[in-house]
Amino acid sequence: MTPTHRALGAFYGLALGDALGMPTQSLSRAEIQSRFGSITTLVDAGPDQPIAPNMPAGSITDDTEQAILVAQLLIDGNGRIEPALLAERLIAWEAVMQAKGSQDLLGPSTKRAIEMILAGRSPEEAGRYGTTNGAAMRITPVGIAADIAQPRRFLEAVIQACQVTHNTSLGISSAAAVAAVISCGINRQSLAQALEIGTEMAFTAEQHGHWVAGGRLGPRIRWARELSRDCPDGELADLLYDVIGTSVASQESVVVAFALAQRVALGKLGAFDALCLAASIGGDTDTIAGILGAMLGACDGLDCWPAELIAQVIEVNALELVPLVQGLIALRNA
């Protein structure tokens, strides 16, 4: 399996998880059970979906769209992201979404950072309050383009992608952990190995950015992986939803994605079944499933996803990720 095949598994895994979670995002677990039962395939969003009303089955959200934006910036910048340009592109992206009537707009951390940029604050300062999962949800292209085998350069690339909106210990460590798993997968490491390295990267990366109060990512990921290892099948969803949490806070949603990935690494859950569980669990379902899909796809390759569902996501969104992935792999090999 080539690095490109694994990178496609990651990027299309992000898109597939995102689309599976699209109709359930921001709904409680009880609401999801009432409306859908559980998610087992791509489904339409209903008219009362609070963020994506009436979106057709297979539609991606801001998670994948912003990852594509970051990927293009990386390629255009030959591996570097100009902070001011990232801010400009995010502003332009939100304007397009608003013109479409979409409610899928910038998240709270990114919105606050962009407002500070527009008010003349520096990019380094603008991201000092970003603790939510926005950086982690769009970090997939950095994990593809930056090789974890060169840890200093890898971490620099992650910090650069986070700085404008999530320049905090929580924002950077969550994004670095996810990107590390993806980068390990592209290097042909097993999911179990990748999760261990991703956990350790969370500890390393939290030394960067502005310190903010909140549960530390490294200890929470390690704790959640241990809980997931021993939890009976019938209790897993309750554990994730009730105890860890599924909000936009990085120390909840990113940690849940790691807990589900641990279950897959143990052979207790299939890759696609894990995405469906993430999409059914409640809260920030599209982001949890998207991050999970990127990590699993990098380690297991494109073939771990149902081909007919990938084809549906491609068709519904007119999505063409092959040139982007090829450009990112070229940066990795440069």
TrEMBL record:
The keyword Magnesium applies. Its cofactor is Mg(2+). InterPro entries: ADP-ribosylglycohydrolase, Ribosyl_crysJ1, Ribosyl_crysJ1_sf. Mg(2+) binds at residues 61-63, 284, 286-287. Binds 2 magnesium ions per subunit. One of its GO terms (molecular function) is metal ion binding. Pfam families: ADP_ribosyl_GH (PF03747). Keywords: Hydrolase, Magnesium, Metal-binding. The keyword Magnesium applies. Belongs to the ADP-ribosylglycohydrolase family. PANTHER family: ADP-RIBOSYLGLYCOHYDROLASE, ADP-RIBOSYLHYDROLASE ARH3. This is ADP-ribosylglycohydrolase YegU. It comes from Pseudomonas batumici. The lineage of its organism: Bacteria, Pseudomonadati, Pseudomonadota, Gammaproteobacteria, Pseudomonadales.
